[in-house]
Amino acid sequence: xxxxxxxxxxxxxxxxxxxxxxxxxxxxxxxxxxxxxxxxxxxxxxxxxxxxxxxxxxxxxxxxxxxxxxxxxxxxxxxxxxxxxxxxxxxxxxxxxxxxxxxxxxxxxxxxxxxxxxxxxxxxxxxxxxxxxxxxxxxxxxxx
Length: 144
Hints:
7% strand, mainly alpha, 144 residues, globular, single chain
């Protein structure tokens, strides 16, 4: 558990904060998704054995994908960028499906309707910054 907390504190939180500072950056979105997804490696790490059982990682991944749509999206985006397309269990998503959205009255005409953000082609309702934040909150909630 100490490794998870250290990874979140030293790697994930600062990476997400960089994305907060650059909400229209596809690069920052990708990095935030990758480090958030790979938090499960630290959750699965067995300190007594000093290793990460691969079956445990797969089990956490499957369970968390089912429990959190936000984690599933983060997983899909991280793997789409890492492998150019998602591999199962995700729907086919290509890295170039993750795009910068330039305002155009998003968020039902709210006060921040013209802000730049990163979304998924064909799914403008997805704001990856909000998705990453919720996925990270979900991961933290698993081990309170």
